[in-house]
Write a structure and sequence with these properties.
By secondary structure, the chain is mostly helical. It has helices at residues 2-10, 14-26, 30-42, 49-62, 66-73, 83-109. Helix 1 packs antiparallel against helix 2 (14-26) and helix 3 (30-42) packs antiparallel against helix 4.
Length: 110
């Protein structure tokens, strides 16, 4: 990501910012990835908005910030390339929440 950091410092470019954020995630640098992707979300960059939302949501999940991840996933546009994945992930998150908050305590007390 050092090269991407350098490129981004020279010229603010949405594609470089997205690549930097994804690279940081691959390295486990989730907070830095969120910082890199946030401007794409704040500016509602037309080309990279959905990608930035998706990867930011995944970073929040890795940081165990489930509510923030859910909020971002719900902002996905209807024609997002991540629409099916978003729906599946939201469904799994709902199932996990129900299981961990309602069913698991019943199992432990039985």
């Amino acid at each position: 990501p050092v090269l991407l950091d350098t490129l981004l410092a020279e010229k603010e470019d949405a594609k470089i910012r997205l690549a930097l954020g994804i690279s940081q995630m691959e390295l486990g640098l989730f907070e830095q990835a969120l910082n890199s992707l946030r401007p794409l979300i704040d500016q509602a960059d037309l080309l990279y908005f959905d990608q930035a939302l998706w990867y930011s949501a995944l970073a929040h999940l890795k940081l165990e910030q489930v509510a923030e991840a859910e909020k971002l996933l719900k902002l996905q546009t209807k024609d997002s390339p991540f629409e099916a994945s978003t729906e599946a992930l939201l469904s799994e998150m709902k199932y996990f929440f129900l299981f961990s908050h309602y069913l698991l305590p019943l199992v432990w007390t039985a």
